[in-house]
Amino acid sequence: xxxxxxxxxxxxxxxxxxxxxxxxxxxxxxxxxxxxxxxxxxxxxxxxxxxxxxxxxxxxxxxxxxxxxxxxxxxxxxxxxxxxxxxxxxxxxxxxxxxxxxxxxxxxxxxxxxxxxxxxxxxxxxxxxxxxxxxxxxxxxxxxxxxxxxxxxxxxxxxxxxxxxxxxxxxxxxxxxxxxxxxxxxxxxxxxxxxxxxxxxxxxxxxxxxxxxxxxxxxxxxxxxxxxxxxxxxxxxxxxxxxxxxxxxxxxxxxxxxxxxxxxxxxxxxxxxxxxxxxxxxxxxxxxxxxxxxxxxxxxxxxxxxxxxxxxxxxxxxxxxxxxxxxxxxxxxxxxxxxxxxxxxxxxxxxxxxxxxxxxxxxxxxxxxxx
Amino acid sequence: xxxxxxxxxxxxxxxxxxxxxxxxxxxxxxxxxxxxxxxxxxxxxxxxxxxxxxxxxxxxxxxxxxxxxxxxxxxxxxxxxxxxxxxxxxxxxxxxxxxxxxxxxxxxxxxxxxxxxxxxxxxxxxxxxxxxxxxxxxxxxxxxxxxxxxxxxxxxxxxxxxxxxxxxxxxxxxxxxxxxxxxxxxxxxxxxxxxxxxxxxxxxxxxxxxxxxxxxxxxxxxxxxxxxxxxxxxxxxxxxxxxxxxxxxxxxxxxxxxxxxxxxxxxxxxxx
Lengths: 371, 272
Description:
The complex is a heterodimer of chains A (371) and B (272).
Chain A: E1 8-12, H1 19-27, E2 38-39, E3 42-43, E4 54-57, H2 69-84, H3 92-109, H4 125-138, E5 143-147, H5 155-172, E6 175-180, H6 183-189, E7 192-197, E8 200-205, H7 207-212, H8 217-222, E9 227-237, E10 240-247, H9 250-254, E11 273-277, E12 285-290, E13 296-298, E14 312-325, E15 328-333, E16 338-342, H10 343-349, E17 356-361, E18 366-370
Parallel strand pairs in A: 1-6, 1-7, 4-5, 5-6
Antiparallel strand pairs in A: 2-3, 7-8, 9-10, 9-12, 10-11, 12-18, 13-17, 14-15, 14-17, 15-16
Chain B: H1 2-12, H2 14-42, H3 45-53, H4 55-88, H5 94-106, H6 109-120, H7 127-132, H8 141-166, H9 169-177, H10 182-210, H11 214-219, H12 226-237, H13 239-269
Helix pairs in contact in B: 3-13, 4-8, 4-10, 4-12, 5-8, 6-8, 8-10, 9-10, 10-13, 12-13
């Protein structure tokens, strides 16, 4: 795994995948049994944390409870001063002033000047996390490691802090490695995402690549691709593949319990064929992924203009309509297809459970991988 | 109406009422024993004043306090690193070391005294060479300190170890990622965060040390520490002669104990 300088790199994976441990290995809190950790080309595998110049931010902040906010932030600066510039210790006052200036600077950068004299226990979660970020930034780290930094925060604070993190990365050019299990967080922040499962990095790519073209059924399921089908390519004309769906319920064919219910037992009314942009040739067994938000719903084909560029039009019966918050609604069909549409659209179309609708998606929205 | 509500509330607190009724027995046990002594002595205040003026009594109390403080300081200097090591590291034989640390708490103190005597007496394994270097233990201040240290340091080590265990190691990792050396991390993060337990352990250690009698009597009955003096007065002159000294010792100890506890609480609250 390689992280580029100045990149916002997110490690995305389910709980227990080993994400935190990986981050702690990079920071030098543990030493690996095998493998190497190179920072700027320098082998730092067995260097102690104090020599790595890496900032670390935990989900639960880990602010020193016995120190005020400003002393927390000054901690690293003071430690570095004594550790590195022994000869300059005589210039105590000058150094102290420099530390104070730097502390004020990071406090301002994060808009928390008013908290300087407070103890961590008196701060809200969001404030504590900002102090933790300020403390890490004060040492001007070459990498900032963030372990689920937004998980313990409420929605509003999360949004603000997410913006702060992106801004810090953009404006200061700090390389950031951010661990999370939250796909939205990953999608919104990352330049690139590494998906980690059971201690292994299973896919690295841009958010678009990860969410639209997951490398396996397991990744697809984890990143929220609810429409997963297995089939065989029956024709491929210049990259447009016609795939005969063998079993819409991939869980059954893959024998993976974790996928159960992801697609149900779909038999598409009038069509058991999906068109997808794919490199696979005739006879190749493939898995097809379609993200729910890529599916458009229409009451009738005429409503949709009679014809369109979309290659896939599937007649379905609505089984359940569930609100998922943020004005979005998850519409599950009886054949197993799942679409994510706005509540406004559902209202406008007058969609009810039991109604017949057409699920429409483009061939480019259907992603295939070899089964 | 009010009575019904109060009764309902009491019903909800049943377990706590029962706990209090049973637990109060132990509190009463201490209060009756010490209270009786203070009450009896209060009726003969002149004897107490007499004891407070007695140079032998004051000297014995001073020896007890200074020896207990020295023993606590030694326990602190050597026990803190041991506690930190035991709290942070897992290794083969760790439970054996932990068991050895706690042995002094298990054995009768007269046995501890005899064992210490065999080692630190004039002709003992350590006593002889150290005496040649000018450090005598048998019937000497150092002997009192050694006896007190032996029986009290496990209380310090155990408390400090629990204190360090409660400090999330991630505080230390973060400190080091910020550039602090291991030593600096210990002194500026681990130690201050564990200090409420360390202070509490030191107080328990000091209290246990000052109250030690048997081991001190065997190894160093001279110079007289307060418990030895009290015992001597009790066996030679009876309760009336021993009690004023006992009340004086307890009063001073309680005062120091309360002051140290207050200090510990203050240190603890400043960590929050």
